[in-house]
Design a protein that fits this description.
With 77 residues, the protein is an all-alpha fold. Helix content is 79%, strand content 0%.
Length: 77
């Protein structure tokens, strides 16, 4: 009752094909596929960049520990 049956989805698909045509849907599918591929490639590149950035951040943190002076602040009464 709350969900559509297979027949409902087939009718919707038929209407979409009739409205847009198969050529436009093929182009849309190709565009969507290339966008997903570009996104995946970007995520792979971003992961490699994050690992390098993390190593640099750890190195910067160890250098900062040598020069940082830790001071306790006293509140005025």
């Amino acid at each position: 009752m709350g969900t559509f049956s297979v027949w409902h989805w087939l009718i919707v698909l038929l209407i979409v094909v009739l409205v847009f045509g198969t050529k436009k849907l093929k182009n849309l599918g190709g565009d969507l596929g290339s966008a997903v591929k570009g996104f995946k490639d970007g995520m792979k590149d971003g992961t490699a960049g994050d690992a390098t950035a993390e190593k640099t951040a750890v190195a910067d943190q160890s250098n900062a520990d040598k020069t940082t002076i830790d001071v306790d602040a006293k509140q005025k009464s």
